[in-house]
Amino acid sequence: MFRSFTNVNYRIWFLGALVSNIGGWMQATAQDWVVLTELTDNDATAMGVTMALQFGPPLVLVSLTGWVADRFDRRRILLLTQSVLMLLALGVAALLLTGVMTLPLMFCFALAFGITNAFDAPARQAFVSDMVTLEDASNAVALNSASFNMARLIGPAVGGLLIVAVGTGWVFVVNAATFLAMLVALMLIRRGELIPRAKNSGRGGLAEGFRYVWARSDLKVVFVMVFLIGAFGMNFPIYASTMALEFDREADGYGILSSILAIGSLAGALLAARRDRARVRVLIVAAGLFGAASIVSSAMPTYGTYAAVLVVVGFSTVTMLTTANGYVQTTTDPALRGRVLALYMAVVMGSTPIGAPIAGWITDAAGPRAAIIFGGVAGLVAAGVGLTWIIASGRLRRETGARFRLTLDETRPITIAPVDPVEFSDEVAAATTPIRTERAD
């Protein structure tokens, strides 16, 4: 389960990311609460607009961010983006503490966070493959998710308590300080032990990555499923905050809901770390479970019962995202990994500008329970898309010798030859035949 920890660079990265992620979840809780209760009168639509501005840039800038992640030193990219994010957090803190923050200003900061994260996310995802071998990449992705969700257990609850105790501005100050952990980790990483990257001239840009994805039906199905749930199901800040208000809870009640969601998320990430490789079939089951659990949660009559079902929602969400991320990383040509991951992150983060305003509008018009049901249905549709692909591709078939027993063909892992950084050149890359898969799952 923890085999990636044998790599010293990954251990350093993991600890730095854990501290930084705790601060990030504290800030996310504070930002949502500021927009919902301090800058508006419980306006869920304003929250949706804030989320759209923050998660829209990965979709708009995907042609540039993926190329940057493939072309330049990812460690240096992360040093720059993490520094900018720290400065932005300090800027929000200053405006909140001086009492001059307005909703339009918060919208501007949300957009600035989104632009910076658009460059940070694909570089961060692809940097994992620079630290560990291909065989450990899926495990490292799952452990990254575990770190993210361990932080989610702590960050929202602590953030909610700090909001009540000292105010939202100081939460942004604390988050700015936690960025130092990631910056120190990036400085301590042993650059000489990073895995050499395949050289690529990048002449094809994003179009090359798009053609690669378009030629593989399995990746197209993964992207569609993630889009449906990312756009319409994963609007947790809107759902949890408005449900907390419906149950007459304050910021600490909202923070606790986010932390409870992370209990299931952490379990899903740790379970994913035990798997030898990522499979689309797991993604399909997780999507169906997400849809069913979301619909059940919308019918819960009390704060406690709603929180209990959120554990299942969190488990299914992270199982789905971790499986999708690991699958994309481990089955993609290394020379195109940054661009393909930029497309993937554009789908995950860029789907929010489409779904979040819709979720906010439904919440304002019909209540949070109706919005949650809408997201749950999207999860069931995503599972249906994946199941239809498996059946149409011929992978699901009747087992020989058993009339009523079905079997599903096993995934065939892709083996990628190690790259010699001295001998591998752009000319060799240009003559290399792209990886093709016949039965990738």
From TrEMBL:
Main localization category: membrane
Any one Gene Ontology cellular component term annotated for this protein: plasma membrane
Gene3D superfamilies attached to this UniProt entry: MFS general substrate transporter like domains (1.20.1250.20)
UniProt keywords, alphabetically: Cell membrane, Membrane, Transmembrane, Transmembrane helix, Transport
GO molecular function terms attached to this record: transmembrane transporter activity
InterPro entries associated with the record: MFS_dom, MFS_trans_sf, TM_effector
Residue ranges of the TM segments: 12-28, 48-70, 170-189, 221-241, 253-273, 280-300, 306-328, 340-363, 369-392
Superkingdom assignment: Bacteria
SUPFAM superfamilies: MFS general substrate transporter
Topology of this chain in the membrane: Multi-pass membrane protein
Protein name: MFS transporter
Compartment(s): Cell membrane
Keyword Endoplasmic reticulum: no
Domain (Major facilitator superfamily (MFS) profile): residue spans on this chain: 1-401
